Amino acid sequence: MKKILTCIGFALISSSLYAQGSPDYGSGLKINLNQQGDKYVRFILWDQFWLRNTQMNPGSMVGGEPTDNSWSLGNRRLRTLVYAQISKRYMILAHFGINNQTFINGGAPGTSGTGGYGNGKKTQLFFHDAWNEYAVILPGEAGKFSLSLGAGLHYYMGLSRMTMASTLNFLTVDSPIFTWPLIDNSDQFARQLGMFAKGKYGKLEYRFSLNKPFATDLVPPNVTDPSKAVAVDNNGNPNFSKAGYVEYQFLDEESNTLPFKVGSYLGTKKVFNIGAGFYHQKDGTRTSVNSAIEKHDISLWAVDAFADIPLGNAKNKMAISAYAGYYNYQFGPNYLRNIGIMNIASSDPNFAGNKAIAGPGNLQPTIGTGNIIYAQAGLLLPNQAEKPKIRIQPFAAFTHKDFDALNKPSSQFDIGANWFIDGHHAKITTQYSTRPVYTSPTEDPSSKGEFILQFQIYL
After folding, report:
1. What is the pLDDT of residues 36-79, one digit of tens each?
2. Which residue in 93, 120, 178, 183 is a FRET match for 141, CA 20 to 30 A apart?
3. With left for phi above 0 and alpha for psi between -120 and 50, is residue 189 left, alpha or beta?
4. Cβ contacts of 311 within 8 Å, gap of 6 or more
């Protein structure tokens, strides 16, 4: 029976890998450490390269030159992930790489100017994940229940499916970013140091973690009016954070070998899940009123649903992929973070008009105390040949944000298509996105756009 369960486990791993990519890919780059194949090392390597045209926020300049529109190139992600199944119970994982390298920024710390260590060059390689994991109760040993425990720098950060999303198989070109609410403040690129528990009970999957957030020390602006207090990330000697996510998988069960949640299965599975999650850290932010410091908890929760379902005749291999989520964020009074992916712009000191309060380039209000509604959907079009040279998946996404720091809510959309050459392993993504631009917190925002052409390949 143990041998059968082990075979089933490895079949699920292979199925998960197959479902995320191409039928020609198999189990990928895998080195067996014994003849049975139950001890192995698995390698995953990938690159996402972007060509972009961005309508800049008012008051922007690139390379010292004022501009309202700019083309750019950059490595959004260039990474390697390795994990080893030492025994049927024990696994270790390491994930490292670079992010957000452009022609002008994103290089190693201190790089600037012209030369071998000039603008954007020799970007820093760092670890995204590094943890050990032990299966306390394997599937089948205690009926429907299974349990694994792990510790290290990890991605089991609770809150939502998209908080733990795989970057290899997004439906849209990228994450909407707000689903990583602590990004590079009290986490390290959406990870924290801690301990986690994961497992299943039948069709119910659970993930919980206890972590020590990275220390933050931003100085809150001092105000005299309590209603104008602005919370910033300052946790001093950080309290432990608690996070969790639970989902019910109504149809096909998904693999939980790794934490990374699939964005689009391309019709290779029939999935419908509903989930809920949370993140909490006591005294994670601070405000200052009349020079008196007040601490505030970070309390976040979300509910979401995900579906990836084949449609019509099986030979056509059509499928619909959809996700919807509601996010409630409490960081303290008027907390607001402005983020722009691979932002290449700086502020123009000579600009005479009304600048965007978010800042230059493609910065936008992304994370804050308030509410966010997000939805995305895509349709994998039917095959037109036995072995099509390309598969097409048009998609659209919608985001509505209502932050306490801004009197007016905002709405934005993304529209585009994936052009699959070999599943997610070789694809091109085209996407046009809008973002809100506020020049005053009390007025309705205007809108700017950005076109992205992504080339993705992973092994």
Report:
1. 888 999 999 999 999 999 999 999 999 999 999 999 999 999 99
2. 93
3. left
4. 267, 318, 319, 320
Which residue is listed with tokens 């004022």?
66
Helix or strand run (H / E) with residue 13: helix 2-19
- Domains along the chain? 2-458 (2.40.160.10)
Alpha-carbon distance of 222 to 229, in angstroms, equals 8
Q: What is the pTM of this model?
A: 0.94
Locus of tokens 């994940």: 129
Q: What is the Cα gyration radius of the chain?
A: 23
Burial of 325-350, coded b for 16+ CB within 10 Å and e otherwise, reads bbbebbbbbbbbbbbbbbbbbbebee
Residue 330 near residue 391 (C-beta atoms within 8 A): no
Asked whether the beta carbons of 458 and 424 are under 8 A apart, the reply is: yes
Q: Enumerate residues 6+ apart whose C-beta is below 8 A from 148.
A: 133, 134, 135, 136, 197, 198, 199
Determine contact, residues 24/422, Cβ cutoff 8 Å: yes
Token couple for 27: 């189990």
Q: Rounded to the nearest 5°, which phi and psi values hold at 71?
A: -95, 145
